[in-house]
Amino acid sequence: MKTLIVNTDGSLAVKEIPIPKYNSKQALVKTISCGICGTDTKLIHFGFKGFPKDVYPIMLGHEGVGRVVEIGSEVTGLKVGDIVLLPFNDPNEELYGSLGSGWGAYSEYGVVNDKAAYPEGEIPEVAYAQQIVPEDINPVDAAMIITLREVLSNIKYFGIKENDNVVVYGSGPVALTFIKFMNLLGIKSIIAIARNEEKIKNVLVHGATVALNSKECDVVKEVRSIYPDGVKYVLDAVGSPDVVNQAMELICDRGEILCYGVPEKSQMQLDFSKAPYNWKLNFQQMPSKLEESMAFEQVLEWIRSGKIDLKDYISDYYTFDHILEAFEKFADHKILKKGIITY
Q1: Burial category of 157 from C-beta neighbours within 10 Å (exposed 0-12, middle 13-18, buried 19 and up)
Q2: The dihedral of CA 331, 336, 338, 343: what is its sign?
Q3: Do the Cβ atoms of 310 and 303 come closer than 8 Å?
Q4: How far is CA 338 from CA 311, 313, 315, in A?
């Protein structure tokens, strides 16, 4: 099969490798689609925690959807033909030599676990989130559900409630999803910070109550004019130390900065001289797969009721043959929302 890899110099290449092996509790999946994510960029730039340079080259991709084509002898919760989320490819020295894995979902095949095949207490956490996509959901666009589940589970983890006020930095697919979901959950005060007028329109369409162009206004002054005592939450959906530092000027006493975006470096310099005396910094960058799975049904309900249209979050589709071109455009910020690779 073909897979996308990041070389030791950070360059991307398509490589031929063997189709993965699977055990008696797993299933082999033929990939249908995989979403492009900012985490991929961090991995390309050697900036994602837990992936030192000596594990490279690595297979890339973690927002995959595929169809089950073979099942292990103990599998009872999956059948051939099922559409499933999160097929991965783990490192395998016998098959792949020293090739590592950044989850490896930009591959023509992957492997999923059947949680029903494992004894209680031995279920791999990822198995909870390797869920079956119902037949009424577009299987290509279903890659977006992975982001949607993550975001909903994180809103619950962060504890944002209906009467809270929130500032959101970012205007990409993740930020738009946070804004939309908080709106659906009844959070009525959402101030979005974006960098151009097209993105300002996007955040307003998705439910922001106020949108500020950070290149044309003093964000701190504008937010403080609305909330003189500061806001309860500032959400960084970008992954920027600059956002974290500015957020300190926006939060109220005992306010909280929520870091969902992954910074490119594992260190940042913080100047909290302008922060209140009492505040919190909350990082959530590897969501629990169990919590993600618990958000699945709510996401499906919103899709079926028309409150969410998956295509509202997707701007570009590329076949796997054009995956290198897709990543060039992603790096140049020419993919406005989510980009999907199809197989």
Answers
A1: middle
A2: negative
A3: yes
A4: 9, 6, 6
Q: Which residues of the chain have pLDDT under 70?
A: 262, 264
What is d(CA 90, CA 285) in angstroms, rounded to the nearest whole number?
Answer: 20
Q: b or e along 34-50 (b: 16 or more beta carbons within 10 Å of the residue's beta carbon)?
A: bbbbbbbbbbbebbbee
Residues 6+ apart with CB under 8 A from 188: 162, 163, 209
Q: What is the CA radius of gyration of the chain?
A: 20
* Whether residue 8 sits in one domain with residue 91: yes
Residue 268 lies in a domain: yes
Residues 252 and 228 sit within 8 Å (Cβ to Cβ): no
ω before 57 within 30° of 0 (cis)?
yes
**The CATH number of the domain where 237 resides is what?**
3.40.50.720
Q: Which domain holds residue 48?
A: 2-133+309-342
pLDDT for res 83: 98
Q: 224 and 176, same structural domain? A: yes
Q: What angle do CA 207, 212, 214 make, to 5 degrees?
A: 135
Report residue 76: phi and psi, to 5°: -125, -20
Q: Is residue 118 part of a domain?
A: yes
Residues 127 and 158 in one domain: no
pLDDT at site 194: 93
